[in-house]
Amino acid sequence: MARFEKGKSGNPSGRPKQTAEELDLIKACKSKVPKALDKLEALMDSEHEGIALNASLPISKRAYGKQRQKINTT
Fold it and tell me: Nearest 5°: phi and psi at 6?
C-alpha cells in the first residue's frame, strides 16, 4: 500500500463542493421528514407486530444509534 509523505495531504483540494442540484435534493428531503415521522408514528400503533417493529427501528436507531455487536476473537 502506498503511503503519503509525512505532512502532505492525500487530498489537497479537499472534498468537492456540493452542486446546486445536490443542495436542492437535500432541502427537498428535509422538508419531507415531519411527514415521514408522522407516518412512522402512526405505523408504530399497528396491531401487526412486524409493522410496528419496523416502524420503531428507524426512530430508535436515529435516537440511540445502532446496537453494538460484540465480536469474540481468540
Answer: -60, 130
Provide φ and ψ at 12, rounded to 5°.
-65, -25
Residue 54, Cβ neighbours under 10 Å: how many? Answer: 14
* Residues 16, 23: Cα–Cα separation, whole Å: 13
Q: Comparing C-alpha atoms, which of 29, 31, 30, 59 is closest to residue 45?
A: 59
Alpha carbon distance 51, 34 (integer Å): 19
The confidence band for 1, taking pLDDT boundaries of 50, 70 and 90, is low
Sequence-distant (6+) residues with CB within 8 A of 40 are 55, 56, 58, 59
The reported pTM is 0.61
> Exposure of 28 by Cβ count < 10 A (0-12 exposed, 13-18 middle, 19+ buried)?
exposed
